[in-house]
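Students often ask why we bother encoding 3D structure as a string. The short answer is that it lets us treat folding as translation between two languages. Here is a chain of 149 residues written in the first language.
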Amino acid sequence: MTDKTSKRKEQADSGATEPRLLSGGNPQIPKGYGNGPVQAYIAAMPGWKSALGRRIDAIVEEVVPGVSKAVKWNSPFWGVEGQGWFLSLHCFTHYVKVTFFRGTSLDPVPPGPSKHPEVRYLDIREGAFDAEQFTDWVRQASRLPGEKM
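And here it is in the second language, the structure alphabet:
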């Protein structure tokens, strides 16, 4: 057996599977609802991005008690039950892109434009996370009507 085959067999025997990283290092996590799939996504984020994912998740949980979570389209989502999703993120090679679904209603408006009229993006590069501003945006976004997906 080759090393690759041995590793696959060991994983199959133990029931463990490593998430595959798609282009840009975005983890491929099966669609799922709740904290488990989001934590699996965060754990699979490569390098410094995993610590950023944990920080983002902690901020959202602190600001929005009882926040709903899911992984859809290989991205984690956060929302409010009955209101929809207000936030998502996605890994790229050199940054993590955060999506605010009602971003044009936030003050100040997040810097990244979108082809969708209400969406705004925040590209976070290593060492450039403004937790105070992000927390304020999460607070604002969670109070707005969310996106139904």
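Translate back mentally: Helices lie at 3-14, 35-44, 48-63, 131-142. Keep this in mind for the problem set.
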